[in-house]
Amino acid sequence: MERYTVSKVVGKGSFGKAMLCKRRRDGKLCIIKQVDTARLGPRERREAQREAALLATMRHPNIVGYWESFLHGARGETLCIVMDYADGGDLYGYLKSRRGSPLPEERVLDWFVQITLALKHIHDRKILHRDLKSQNIFLTMSRVVKLGDFGIAKVLANTMDHARTAIGTPYYMSPEICQEKRYNHKSDMWSLGCVLYEMAALRHAFEGNDMRQLVAKICRGQPAPLPSRYSAALRALVAELLSKDAHARPGANAVLRQALVRDRIGGFLSQAQLQEEFSHTVLHGRVHDAVLPAAAAAAAAGGGSAMGAAAGTPGFVPPAGLAVDDRRAVAAAAALIARPAAAAR
Ligand SMILES: Nc1ncnc2c1ncn2[C@@H]1O[C@H](COP(=O)(O)OP(=O)(O)OP(=O)(O)O)[C@@H](O)[C@H]1O
Ligand SMILES: [Mg+2]
């Protein structure tokens, strides 16, 4: 903690307090989340620290970057997670500030695409968000949207479960979580549907006077129809994401494949990022699940150079039985992986 000076406490969330800080070395602003882990045993604390360290390896233009994490306090009981400071406030605050004035569909979709790209990035790397809500989505001055607080719920799963339910109303909780089933990536997709609904309707998809009523609405109710200014395609997407049955809900890759969304992807990721993001899906053996929008496919197929580099990768054999374009994408991805990690960032 000596490396930082605290400017002010910016808020208190479900897991602990968030402080605006300055790094002494270069004066860069950051947010430090402090979480009390005093109730954890040494093994659980190590596990929490390991999880937090994993989060720091995620890099994407649409996610709040984590810098580092460390234990602090006389007995190392406070876990500190250091992350980028998002300077434009959160989506919740922004939607509230509209005072009922609707957002153009274009803007809703542009922000939705960025959130979905962020979710794809973490899901492809087997990380679940677990706390997706408009308060954890940040706007920057340049109107880039960044997803924050991903994975923290898992890091702290053992510490704060009880405190968590006591703070805030879980508007974004999926039907399967209401039924105490296991959290999975489709539970994040439900929350994503709630956020999309909220951007269009400027209110929560499901509300209740108390927990019992909220759970009944989530499990059996239908949200009020979206304003008629929004397209049928956008309404259909909300309905799909809010399918009560988790299996019927699309995953992030399936959402990004939809025409409404797909054609916007190129506007938010550079050619290199597109290649990295969409080749990654291929690499994980889910070739037919891969999105590969036109721009990414072009980047992946980017001529002999990617293939050539991959061909020079020791032990690289493009999987048999794939279409030529898929083989090119895998080859390009192999070339990317052969590069030092730092160069890929
Ligand atoms: N990286 C960040 N950049 C800028 N502001 C942030 C950042 N992280 C959190 N905040 C702000 O700090 C306040 C507290 O955030 P915190 O994440 O602790 O609580 P929360 O989002 O309400 O709940 P949760 O713990 O479920 O995420 C919020 O107002 C939030 O907008
Ligand atoms: Mg938060």
UniProtKB/TrEMBL annotation:
Its EC number is 2.7.11.1. SMART domains: S_TKc. It holds the Pfam family Pkinase. Gene3D superfamilies: Phosphorylase Kinase, domain 1, Transferase(Phosphotransferase) domain 1. Belongs to the protein kinase superfamily. Keywords: ATP-binding, Kinase, Nucleotide-binding, Serine/threonine-protein kinase, Transferase. The keyword Signal does not apply. Residues 4-261 form the Protein kinase domain. This is non-specific serine/threonine protein kinase. It catalyses: L-threonyl-[protein] + ATP = O-phospho-L-threonyl-[protein] + ADP + H(+); L-seryl-[protein] + ATP = O-phospho-L-seryl-[protein] + ADP + H(+). The keyword NADP does not apply. Signal peptide: none annotated.
